[in-house]
Every structure is written in C-alpha cells, then in structure tokens.
Amino acid sequence: MTDARGSRAGETGVDPATGGLCTPLFELHSELGGRMANFGGHALPMRFEGTIAEHSATRTAAGLFDVSHMGIIELHPNRSDEVGDVAAWLERCVPGSVVNLAPGRMRYTLFTTSAGGVLDDLIVSNHRNRLRAVVNAVRADADLAMLHGVNGGGDDGDVRIAVRHDLALLALQGPAAVGVLARWAPPAAELAFMSTAAMSIDGVECEVSRCGYTGEDGFEIAVPTTEAVYVAQLLLSSDEVSPAGLGARDTLRLEAGLPLVGHELTEATTPAEAGLGWSIPKRRRAEGGFPGFETITAQLCAGPPRHRVGVAAQGRRPIRDGAVLADADGAHVGIVTSGGFGPTVDAPIAMAYVTAEHACDGTELFAEGRKGPEPCRIAPLPFVEHRFWRPS
User: Fold this and answer.
1) Which residues of the chain form beta strands (DSSP E)?
2) What count of Cα atoms within 13 Å lies in the side-chain half-sphere of residue 198?
3) Tens of pLDDT along 73-114?
4) What CATH number has the domain bearing residue 77?
5) Where in the sequence is the domain holding 323, given as residue range(s)?
6) Residues 86 and 156 reside in one and the same domain
7) Which of 118, 175, 228, 286 has the smallest count of CB within 10 Å of its CB?
C-alpha cells in the first residue's frame, strides 16, 4: 500500500480494535508502530515512540500529525457567482467577520448557540470562488445540521454545502516545518501565518495553509486521499520530521493555551468566558445577527462571571480534567477543563474556568486530588510562547 501512489490510500473502513473509522493513513500508522485509539469516532494514533519524545521533536524540529478526522466543509454560492454572498450568509452563523476576509486568507471563528454557548470553533478560509470551513470531528454533524437549517434545509438555498470526503488533512508542525516543506513546495516558505494557497508538493496538487494547533510555526496540508500516504511518506523521509500522535498534540496545545472543544469550549461556555472576545470585531458586536448575540455582547461589555485561566501546580502531581478548584476556605471557585504534564515547561499545568474574582494571575487555590487538595496558582496563558510566523 505505502509504496504505490494512490493504491488503496483513499479507502476507508472500521478498525476492529478501536471501532473507529480508518483515515487514509491508517495502514501507514500501523507500519510505523502507532498505538491506535478511537478519537471522535476515528481510529488515530495516540503515540508512536512516545508522547514526550514526539512533543519534544515538534518543539525542536518537526512533527507530522494525521488530522484527517477534522471535517472539511465547503460553501459555494448557489444563486450568484459572488463568494461575498456566501460570506454574508455565513455571518448569520458565526460572530466573526467573514465578509472582509481576503482571498487566500484564513480566520478563526465560532459557531454559537442561541443561548450564547459555543457549538464549535473553526477556521474559515477564502478560496476565491468558495469558502472552506475546517471543523472539529466531534461536532461536524451538529455543524452541518445548523448550516443546512440556516440554508432552508435543502440544496436549493442560497449556499451549496459540500463535505470534502475526498481530502485528507496532514499537520506538519515545528521550527523545521518550513524548511522541510519548501524542499518540495518552495512557495510554502513565503506563506504568512493564517494564509492558504494551492501548490504542488512533488507533483501532488494540495492546499497548503500556514496554521496549526501546537503554538509552533507550521502547516496544514489538504491532500487528495489517494495521495495522502505518498505525501506523508515524502515528509517523513526528512530527518527532521517525526510521526506524532494525539498525545503530543494535546500536550502541545495545552502548553500553548489553546482551547479544545468538549473541554474548554462547550455549549455551556460563552466566547467571553473562553477569552475569545478578540475573535468578535466591533462591527459584529454592533450589528449582531448571529446566534446568542444578546448574551455574548452583554458579557463582552460587562465582563463574564467566570474566566478561562492557566493553572500551575505547586508540586509535581498533575492536575486532572474535572478537578474542582477551591479557595483557602474550601469554597468551590472553579473546575479544571484540561490538565496534564507539560514536557517543555517540565511541570504539571492545566486550564480551568474560575470565578471572575479568582481569575487574577498568582491567585493561590487548591485542586482536588487523589491524595487530597493540591496547592496551585493561576498562571498566565500561554505557558509556552507562540511561534507563528508573520512577515515583518
């Protein structure tokens, strides 16, 4: 399979061991010794050599992640040739600004609920004749249901909605990523952060985006499923690139202070609470027209009742997801949404929601632990500085 370009690379099935859907790279993961798990209904590698080794390789060189479980949804104009009409339509679903998104540029935004919660977070990109949205696997069905509802429930609405099952998605992340990719696709070196362009990678036509979920410089590569194994092997042939699994992806994004759907982002969490007010510009706050407008803008103006914060353990025991945070009097003031060991900072770290009065950096709290309360303190995010590349 892995030697012939396109042979069986686009096939999918169900992994009997995990019960998850196989991505086009499933057999390659197995050949590389990947330890598989069911994540969002897909069979994906949790680790290869080990989470800490893959984390460190990404921070110092480059890691290659299979993120083909992400949903790729394209939005085409159905009643005109103007992608601007699609952008205006999409602003009925998201609080971000899409109508001023230039061709070749990308923007982070949210699908919100009528109550002001977060249904999903997504990246929207302008591909000149269409918009593309990359959404989370666990929310893809709900996202599509919402989009079809806004579109009138059928294919004859203002927008044609297409799911790109024919594309796989690879993430090449780390300081060596640009040098590696530029060997096969020289234009990648000049691509700015949050920009996207079509380019050939050793003869394979791909869409390359400079973005990622690790806090490092890097790229996400949308590649035809029939060519995914070939492109992955091509990148892995470089000494700088290591295969990396979901374990490292999680520790990297935790150190980078990046929120995750189902943890920091839920329908019970508002953008203001999550610290994502920066993604909602003044125009959208003034005009509204998106789900949950009243609740979201009220919190942006007055301040939310709780805040997403970083948490640093005072000892060496990790603070786990779901741990209750309490003040010195034992009163519950928050809850941990993501926790673990940060290999780069060499310490246990976490993200949590705490009441507004306990959200200041340096506030000392106690986390519920297996052996009793563990001392910790509120810490600034991110734990590791972002290294996204923007031209000077």
Assistant:
1) 21-22, 35-39, 42-47, 62-66, 71-77, 106-112, 118-126, 131-135, 159-163, 167-173, 196-201, 204-209, 218-224, 241-243, 306-313, 324-326, 332-342, 347-355, 364-367, 374-379
2) 8
3) 999 998 777 899 999 999 999 999 999 999 999 999 999 999
4) 3.30.70.1400
5) 305-379
6) yes
7) 286
